[in-house]
Amino acid sequence: MSLMFSATYPERTSSLVLCGSFASIKAEPWAVDQETFERFLRELETHWDQGVLVPINAPSRRDDVAFVEWFGRLERASASPGAILALMRANYEIDVRHVLSAIQAPTLILHRVGDRTVPVEAGRYLVQHIRGAKYVELPGDDHLLQAFDQETMDLLIDEIEEFVTGARPGPEPDRALVTVMFTDIVSSTERAAAVGDRRWRELLDGYVDVARRQLERFRGREIDVAGDGLFAIFDGPARAIRCGCAIRDAVHHLGLEVRTGLHTGECVVAGSKVSGIAVHTGARIAAAAQPQEVLTSGTVRDLVAGSGIRFDDRGSHVLKGVPGDWRLFAVTST
Description:
42% of the residues lie in helices and 23% in strands. The chain contains twelve helices and eleven strands.
């Protein structure tokens, strides 16, 4: 529809940005035959509202139970099975190949090289037939924007910004008050040696899966996973505390114990990177925690006053590389 609008109303189109787009489903280079398409529609109708589009549109998230459940709710909230089938059939009939040469607006075409929904050849076809179009291939297989990893999303946004403004400034670091959380597995080296590499990898995968589900539940943002350690940030300390406790409790069925450290402070946030003395402080607090302990700085304890969260005073500590003495508190009840 955007291609048709741009060709029909050039005076009303300043520029055109397409991501994962196509001119026709039925024609080359995509060429989905009627039988295949009808089989897809039957699958769609049978499993609509169960996240049926995830394996197709976001293969990297097909085994992410929480993501599939969320997308199933999105399917259910967005359209009935009858409505989505009508929309898909309309999409199948669209063929705008004949209008491409008439497009005058500056055009940016973005396409993921491994797109499982709309093959990359469809994007290449567009750039070959739209005069002067700029074409950028992005890494990855997912078609669904909500499933893009942060690095690819940053790249996509940078390309659009440069196309629209003519400039591509580097990321400007922002300072923000955040709560940092560090979690790692207790005695991981000894445990890995005891159970063997294969079983240890299974346990690590289970631990990370549990942690990510809880991060989504408490609106945390994963920053890094390295070995048996996880680093995340939150915009509120109470949710960070509850998330840390939830991860600790949820990994218990895996036979794992974790230690968790939390601190709230001003950090430098630049894209997917978070840095600053508050980050180092949170890591040192985690290192000081006992097995199964969620340990916080006094700053965190003070910020959640009145929330009903209870603490035990763990006394004054010297944190390696962090100036001053730090009074730490263990969470006893949320």
